[in-house]
Amino acid sequence: MTIIGVAGGTGSGKTTVVKKIVEAMPPHFVSVLPLDAYYNDESQATPEERKNINVDHPDAFDWTLFTEHVRKLKAGHAIEMPTYSYAEFSRLPETVHIEPRPVIIVEGIMVLLNKKLRDMMDLKIFVDTDSDERLIRNIQRDVVERGRTLEMVLDRYLRMKKPMHEQFIEPTKKYADLIIPLGGENKTGIEILKTYIEGIVAHSK
Q1: pLDDT(24) > 90
Q2: Which residues pair with 31 in a beta bridge?
Q3: 181 φ, ψ to 5°?
Q4: Cα separation of 49 and 46, whole Å?
Q5: Helix (H) / strand (E) containing 16
Q6: What's the CA gap between 136 and 140, in Å, rounded?
Q7: Which of 17, 19, 20, 103 could disulfide-link to 30, CB 3.0 to 4.6 Å?
Q8: Whole-structure pTM value
Q9: Which of the residue ranges 16-20, 58-62, 195-199 would you say has the lowest mean pLDDT?
Q10: How many helices (H) and strands (E) does the chain have?
Q11: Given its phi and psi angles, is residue 123 left (phi above 0), alpha (psi -120 to 50 degrees) or beta?
């Protein structure tokens, strides 16, 4: 089994890169485990408290459960992945069944921050995109998909996302085996990445 970590700032294009990796592999060959599904449950917080929940800080995630699930998949056991509501800052009752497959991709803004996770990875990737481009993508996503106003998105970006990126995410670039500039737009980089992964998978058989 091959474990691949894909990190990078919010809006960097990680999801697009992961999608292209999945498309390049045989059907049912890859399972994806997004860190976003493992936010801590904040359903007890008041509406005012939720405005100040910093989802871009390491403490926002349930690292214990996430690491346990990666370890179980690596050992060949299926897991029930949690689901999360960004609108309510709460974990939902539904889960998603994830089967162990030859390639497991763990994807999220801080997956290279946690040493226990890094030690389980065969390949570590950092998707690197200009901060202005990431801000635009954050605005498009949060306004359309998460029901937030432009003012809310900009306020949260300046107070939380930007400083957290500089403090916790950007420094993890040093742990990456491969850096993909421009995210999903870097066709050459993604082609090289796909070829590299295919080589790892073939070697591990």
Answers
A1: no
A2: 104
A3: -70, 150
A4: 5
A5: helix 14-24
A6: 6
A7: 103
A8: 0.84
A9: 195-199
A10: 8, 7
A11: beta
